[in-house]
Amino acid sequence: MGPSAPRPHASGWRPEPQVLHPHYGMYIWPCAVVLAQYLWFHRRDLPGKAVLEIGAGVSLPGILAAKCGAEVILSDSSELPHCLEICRQSCQMNNLPQVDVVGLTWGHLSQDLLALPPQDIILASDVFFEPEDFEDILSTVYFLMQKNPNVQLWSTYQVRSADWSLEALLYKWDMNCVHIPLETFDADKEDIAESALPGRHTIEMLVISLGKGL
């Protein structure tokens, strides 16, 4: 029996079809669903907010934020044009022509990064995947925090190894991190968006902000 057609979210978001692809950015990973749930839980706070999703790929969190009234920019690596095209397709499918898509490569000070306006919220779903990328991600986020010291990074992180930790890098870049229990925003259910979550996964919801030691 083939898979049933996905149902639209209550917000009107239509899921981008997931195509088998060697690049893992082409899938809706469990972290994206949990981050989308956090956004939906806080949807009344989103209208008018400037929101940037980094490493967006299929862009579920960013698309949902735009549907909830945020002014959204989607970004993925400037070195992966197919990922940027997936972002654009998600916008087209969800009738969001106002959402910009830009190429940002973590750790690179590019013209597109310099041109970004100050953001209120940065979204990052499972971007802490490869340890060698962690510091490049945080250096990019730190640059954006200089534009608006009150910006928050909302990030979901799937724990894959006890040896991988963000704590030392967060301290190095003078960032504070608050762990948000999944049950506080109804993300501890087993059937979030028709996915068996988080039973077979360990997912953490993090809110990261700039420290006061500047």
UniProtKB/TrEMBL annotation:
<dbReference type="InterPro" id="IPR019410">
    <property type="entry name" value="Methyltransf_16"/>
</dbReference>
<keyword id="KW-0963">Cytoplasm</keyword>
<comment type="subunit">
    <text>Interacts with HSPA5, HSP90B1, TUBULIN, UGGT1 and UGGT2. Interacts with TET3. Interacts with STPG4.</text>
</comment>
<dbReference type="GO" id="GO:0005737">
    <property type="term" value="C:cytoplasm"/>
</dbReference>
<keyword id="KW-0808">Transferase</keyword>
<keyword id="KW-0949">S-adenosyl-L-methionine</keyword>
<dbReference type="GO" id="GO:0006325">
    <property type="term" value="P:chromatin organization"/>
</dbReference>
<dbReference type="GO" id="GO:0035242">
    <property type="term" value="F:protein-arginine omega-N asymmetric methyltransferase activity"/>
</dbReference>
<dbReference type="Pfam" id="PF10294">
    <property type="entry name" value="Methyltransf_16"/>
</dbReference>
<keyword id="KW-0489">Methyltransferase</keyword>
<protein>
    <recommendedName>
        <fullName>Histone-arginine methyltransferase METTL23</fullName>
        <ecNumber>2.1.1.319</ecNumber>
    </recommendedName>
</protein>
<dbReference type="InterPro" id="IPR029063">
    <property type="entry name" value="SAM-dependent_MTases_sf"/>
</dbReference>
<dbReference type="GO" id="GO:0005634">
    <property type="term" value="C:nucleus"/>
</dbReference>
<dbReference type="GO" id="GO:0010468">
    <property type="term" value="P:regulation of gene expression"/>
</dbReference>
<keyword id="KW-0217">Developmental protein</keyword>
<dbReference type="GO" id="GO:0032259">
    <property type="term" value="P:methylation"/>
</dbReference>
<comment type="function">
    <text>Histone methyltransferase that dimethylates histone H3 at 'Arg-17', forming asymmetric dimethylarginine (H3R17me2a), leading to activate transcription via chromatin remodeling. Maternal factor involved in epigenetic chromatin reprogramming of the paternal genome in the zygote: mediates H3R17me2a, promoting histone H3.3 incorporation in the male pronucleus, leading to TET3 recruitment and subsequent DNA demethylation.</text>
</comment>
<keyword id="KW-0539">Nucleus</keyword>
<keyword id="KW-0156">Chromatin regulator</keyword>
<comment type="similarity">
    <text>Belongs to the methyltransferase superfamily. METTL23 family.</text>
</comment>
